[in-house]
Amino acid sequence: MKKKIAVILCGSGFKDGSEIHESVFTLNALSEHGADFQCFAQDAPQADVVDCLSGQAMSGTRNQRVESARIARGNVKKLSDLDPAQFDALILPGGFGAAKNLCDYAFKGISATVKPEVAHALDGFSKLKKPIGAICIAPMVLALHFKGKGLHLTLGSADADLEAQLKNLGHHHKACKVTEICVDEASRVVSTPAYMHENPAIHEVNQGITKLVGSVLSMI
Amino acid sequence: MKKKIAVILCGSGFKDGSEIHESVFTLNALSEHGADFQCFAQDAPQADVVDCLSGQAMSGTRNQRVESARIARGNVKKLSDLDPAQFDALILPGGFGAAKNLCDYAFKGISATVKPEVAHALDGFSKLKKPIGAICIAPMVLALHFKGKGLHLTLGSADADLEAQLKNLGHHHKACKVTEICVDEASRVVSTPAYMHENPAIHEVNQGITKLVGSVLSMI
Q1: How many domains does chain A have?
Q2: A10 part of the active site
Q3: What is the mean pLDDT of residues B116-138?
Q4: Quick check: A27 contacting B, CB < 8 Å?
Q5: Which pTM does this prediction carry?
Q6: CATH number of domain containing A168
Q7: Could A52 and B31 be called an inter-chain contact, meaning their C-beta atoms sit closer than 8 Å?
Q8: In terms of residue numbers, what domain contains B142?
Q9: Once rounded to an integer, what is the mean pLDDT over residues A105-121?
Q10: So what's the pLDDT on residue A28?
Q11: Which amino acids of B are annotated catalytic?
Q12: Cys-Cys link to A30, which of A35, A187, B93, B201 (CB 3.0-4.6 A)?
């Protein structure tokens, strides 16, 4: 039986959606390991649309599922249709979208809330003791949702502000290089910093994510 | 001295821009080989905008350079600023954008013309005998521009129509699996089919592109 992994996307682009490299490397590593994957996204507008060249806000709205289909080549199911019983693990790539569309951390910091469909997915996998992988800023989505549960997570290098935020949410931070992963065996959560580091080499981002995928799959 | 490779993007998404996986795997393989890269795109609207979930046309316009910045994390120069003398090789990822934005093959078949800035880049690298890599449908851009020059190219499996088109343009087709490359030593052109094949495993697309990048770099 092939392992079957659900991947949550939330748009296509580092400034307003899923980080493209992180998402592609996740799917590539899953495929390389012989696992099946299915992408999911909320059928809802992105929080904003950002010109990724200038960094300025753009007019118009973009739908998370429609834009995620750019990464997933058309095969993105509605997140509301995700049944954790049908999958062996869940992976959340990062990008600003994780902080804007999966929760509102980008706007509210640690008083943010996680979107209901995302929260429902996290609860489902967690209750079934199925592993969850989170990349880049996506561990913050777990930190918000599993407040007080004492997760061990990485958000990159030692950063006083981020470490304080994780501590305030009742978790523990582990500094990791871009090629490293933080494995929380007890909570079955794996994280890797990817583009939380400034300007890492793209192939090192791939190395970190490939390790994360291998670790998540080894827990199944 | 690090090798320096120019990569031409034309949007972000398989139906109306650069194929995202192909673009990311190109940048990743270049980085893995220790080469520097710089992405370029025309500062011009895409030929169209397509909903990559439904496959239907969408309203609105999107700028090729702005959308390419989603793949290149903001670092995309204007194609009009590309000076082939400053680079060692050129690589063109595929996606429908290559057939819609780099030329109008998607609309006019082999009577298509290649966009002036793209033609200028191809001429520049070719005259300096610098290698050119082309992925998926992008070899058709070379076939159109270098009409009658007898290039050896792959567009995937044996396909009577595509083979006839290449023959009519004065070139030779080589059937390749997704993990294979077609190397034309004389013309210093390397191609790989990637998503010209239907539903290949994403990691096999990566394998073909990684081979292409290695072959292009070996010619420098």
Answers
A1: 1
A2: no
A3: 98
A4: yes
A5: 0.98
A6: 3.40.50.880
A7: no
A8: 4-218
A9: 98
A10: 98
A11: 136
A12: A35
